[in-house]
Amino acid sequence: MNPTIRPLTDDERRALAAARLVAVESAPYLAHALFSVRPVAAVGLDTFAVDRHWRLYVDPASLIEWGPLASGAVLVHEVCHLIRDHSGRADSLPGPVDHSRWNYATDAAINDDLIAAGLPLPEWVVTPAALGLDEGGVEEAYYASLSPEPPQTEVGCGSGAGDPQQAWEPSLDDPQTPGLDDGQVTITRRKVAHDVRDAVAQGRGTIPAGMARWASDELRAPTVPWRKVLAGMVRRAAALTAGRITYSYTRPGRRRLPRIITPAMRAPRVTAALVVDTSGSMTEGDLNTALAEVGGVIKAVGGTVRVIACDAAAASARQVRNPRDVKLIGGGGTDMRIGIAAAEALKPTPDVVVVLTDGDTPWPEAPTRARLIAVLTREHGMSRVPAWARAIHVPAA
Question: What average pLDDT does the chain have?
C-alpha cells in the first residue's frame, strides 16, 4: 500500500525535533545534513526513508513507537544514505541493479559505522555480521559478496538510498514539498565532508572509520568533467550524455515490418585505459589527485576501467571499479611511453588512454591509435605534451 504524503503536524514536528537533537548530539559532524533534509509525513510507510532530492519521509506511527533515541539513530542512518550518494553509486553498478542486495550492502556499511560510534540502533538493523561479512568494508564490496536477492516489495530506504523511485514521491519542484537540486546537494555533501575532516583532525568524539574514509574521498572528488571530456574526444562516446542513444543493425530491432529489418536501439560506451605515474617524483598529493581522477573516469564510463601503474616499467593492467582497487606499484624512473604502449596493446583496444602524471616524462613522438589525454598535476609539464594529445592541468591536492 502506498503511504499518504502530507505535511507533519505540530506534534509530529516536535517529536522529530527531539529525534534530530539526539542525532546531532550523537553525530555533530552531520548537523548540516540533518538540518538540510526536508521532512514530510508518510503515513503507512512503517519506517523512515529518503529520496534523491533529500526529502525525509517519516511515518508518524514509527516516530512515536521508536521514541527519540531510536528515531534519532535511524535519522542518522537515513542521512548517511544521502551524503554517501548511494543513489548515484547504485547507478554506477555494473549490469542491472539488484536493489534488494544493494539495500542490504548499504545498510550494513552504514550500521557498521553507527554501532562503532555507539548509536542506539534498533536490534533488527542489518549488520555485516548478520550477513556473514567482515566489518569495515565498503558498500560495493559488500554488494559483490552477497548472493542475489528476490526483488523487494517494501520501500527499503527510498530512492535516496538507491532503491527504485516510488510513484508517490513528489517531483523536485513540487510546491508543497520542494526538494534540493543537484547544486544544493553537492554543496551540502562538501560541507559535511569538511566538518567530518575537521572533527577527525581535532579529535572530537569518535568518528567512524567509514565516515572518515567517505569524507576523504569526497574532498578528493575529480576536478575534470570526464563525461564531457570523453564525449568530446571520442565520437562513439556521445551517448555518455544523458539520454543519448543511437541505432545499430548488429542486432535486429523488435519492431516488425514486412521485408524490412529494423535496427535496435543501442547506447554505446567508450572504453578507457588509465596509466598512473608511480615514479619517485610523484608526491602523495600527486597520487591522491590521480586517484580522484580515476574515480571520475570510472563514473563517466559507467562501469570498470583498466589501470596500469607505470614508472620506468609498466605493471600488469588491473580491472578496477573503485579507486581503492588501484595498486600503486613503482617509485623508480619515469617513462609514460611504456605505459601508453602497454595500454594500447590491451584487448579490446581502448578508445581513450588517460595518463595521470606530474608531467616529468617523455611522450610518444607519433600520434597514438587511441585518443590520448594527459592529466598533469604540475603546470610546468603542459608544454611538453604533444600537440596532437589533449593536455589538462589538475593541481595536486
Answer: 84
Please give the pLDDT value at position 307.
94
Q: What is the pLDDT of residues 289-342, one digit of tens each?
A: 888 888 888 877 777 889 999 999 999 999 988 877 788 877 788 999 999 999
Prediction pTM value: 0.60
pLDDT value at residue 268: 52
- The answer, yes or no, to whether residue 117 has pLDDT greater than 70, is yes
Domains and CATH numbers, the chain: 4-219 (no CATH), 272-393 (3.40.50.410)
Query: Cis bond leading into 94, ω under 30°?
Result: no
Rounded Cα–Cα distance for residues 282 and 214 (Å)? 24
- The greatest distance separating any two alpha carbons of the chain, rounded to the nearest whole angstrom, comes to 73
> If we measure between CA atoms, which residue out of 268, 265, 271 comes closest to residue 251?
265
Terminal Cα-to-Cα distance of the chain (whole angstroms): 49
Q: What is the CA radius of gyration of the chain?
A: 24
β-strands 4-6, 38-43: how paired? antiparallel
Q: Which three cell numbers stand for residue 327?
A: 595498486
Residue with cell 562501469: 303
Cα 158 from Cα 40, distance rounded (Å): 13
Euclidean distance between CA atoms 98 and 42, whole angstroms: 25
Asked if 291 and 220 count as a contact pair (C-beta separation under 8 A), the reply is yes
3-state SS of the chain is: CCCEEECCCHHHHHHHHHHHHHHHHHCHHHHHHHCCCEEEEEECCCCEEECCCCEEEECHHHHHHHHHHHHHHHHHHHHHHHHCCHHHHHHCCCCCCCHHHHHHHHHHHHHHHHHHCCCCCCCCCCCCHHHCCCCCCCHHHHHHHCCCCCCCCCCCCCHHHCCCCCCCCCCCCCCCCCCCCHHHHHHHHHHHHHHHHHHHHHCCCCCCHHHHHHHHHHHCCCCCCHHHHHHHHCHHHHHHCCCCCEEEEEEECCCCECCECCEEEECCCCCEEEEEECCCCCCHHHHHHHHHHHHHHHHHHCCCEEEEEECCCECCCEEECCHHHCCCCCCCCCCHHHHHHHHHCCCCCCCEEEEEECCCCCCCCCCCCCEEEEEECCHHHHHHCCCCCEEEECCCC
- How far is the C-alpha of 122 from the C-alpha of 252, rounded, in Å? 52
